[in-house]
Structure formats: structure tokens, C-alpha cells
Amino acid sequence: MSPQTLSFAHRFVPGTGAGRAPLLLLHGTGGDENDLLPLGQAVAPGAALLSPRGQVLEHGAPRFFRRLAEGVFDEADLHRRVDDLAAFVAEARRAYDLPAPVALGFSNGANIAAAMLFLKPEVLSGAALVRAMVPLAEPPAADLGGRRVLILSGAMDPIVPAANAATLARQFDGAGARVDHRVLPAGHGLGQGDLAALAEWFAG
Q1: Structural domains counted in the chain
Q2: Is residue 21 part of a domain?
Q3: Is residue 145 assigned to a domain?
Q4: Is the Cβ–Cβ distance between 198 and 184 less than 8 Å?
Q5: Which residues are marked as active site?
Q6: Averaged over 30-39, what is the pLDDT?
Q7: Does residue 1 form part of some domain?
Q8: Which domain holds residue 173?
Q9: pLDDT in tens, 86-117
Q10: Would you say the pTM of this structure is higher than 0.90?
């Protein structure tokens, strides 16, 4: 269906399953608003899907915020982009009559979702973060009181060091989230193990 005109180019798929939280789908570098729709439908059947396109271009590849180098984030830009994305989620919730979504993010999309949990914790009801890394060198104190957070890391991921992902899990735990951090026998890309873990977590 054609989306309403909101502040981000996006796709919206209405939910068909009663009681399922909507998913905020956040693609990785070079993806777009269509990328994660099949994943969302596979791991959370019946959930409403809200899928925006990142507004930063890196050599023509859409992202959700700027980076200075691989794994080195422009934190000033990240703060601004979290504000922009939070405003879009508020617009979309009004336009489509949605409760607070659960983020499902991959790579760059997982990183902005992680940053949003610390900077704007009221926006998300939880998050599934695939190949996330620490987005903020010094995250602010946040009260994530019982929100569920899944982190799926790859044991052979050349981009996200294992210690970095473990630090992120500790940060969420310290903020009161119910953290499930799993290290899969995978690299940086999505695989069948991720699909199985996501489907199990969303069903839980």
C-alpha cells in the first residue's frame, strides 16, 4: 500500500495479528525501506511493519547516521538522527494508530536502535539488534525497566569485536533491560541462525 507522506520515506504493512507489537524495521548500510520487510514477516508473522529509509548517504548508500570510519561513529550526528527518527516514529504512530514499536535492526540500523534506547527510551517497547555495537562512548543513564532486548552477535564478525558487543549487553543490563545476548557461529551477514533466534524471541 502507498505510505502516507511523513518525514522519512518508508513502507508500512498493516498488522493482521491481534496483540502483536508493531516492528520498526531499521536496515543496514546500503539497504532501504524494502530490505527487512521479508525478515519482519518471517520472524513476527501478523505484526504491523514500519520500515523507514535512512536519510544519510555514504557514497550513495543509505544509512541512519554518519560515521567517521569503520566502527567510528559521528556521535553529534547520531544524536541528531536519533531525534529525527524518534519524531518520525511519533508521526507514524499517529498516522497509522500504532502502539510503541519493537525495533528490529541490522548493523547500522541496530546501532541507531541501540542509541535510541539510551537517548529516547520512551520511543521503543523493546529491540532485537542484529550485529549491533556500542553506539555511544558514554551513554546517558536510562531507565529501560524490564524492556526486552535481544542482541545477536557473530562469532566471526570482522566488523563488531566480541568485547564491544559484550559491553553493549552490559550497558543495557545496567539500564534495567532484560537482555538476551547470543553469539552465533556467523560473520556480519544475516543467516538462518538469526532467523531462528529472532522467531523464537518474538514468539516469547
Answers
A1: 1
A2: yes
A3: yes
A4: no
A5: 107, 157, 188
A6: 98
A7: no
A8: 10-203
A9: 999 999 999 999 999 999 999 999 999 999 99
A10: yes
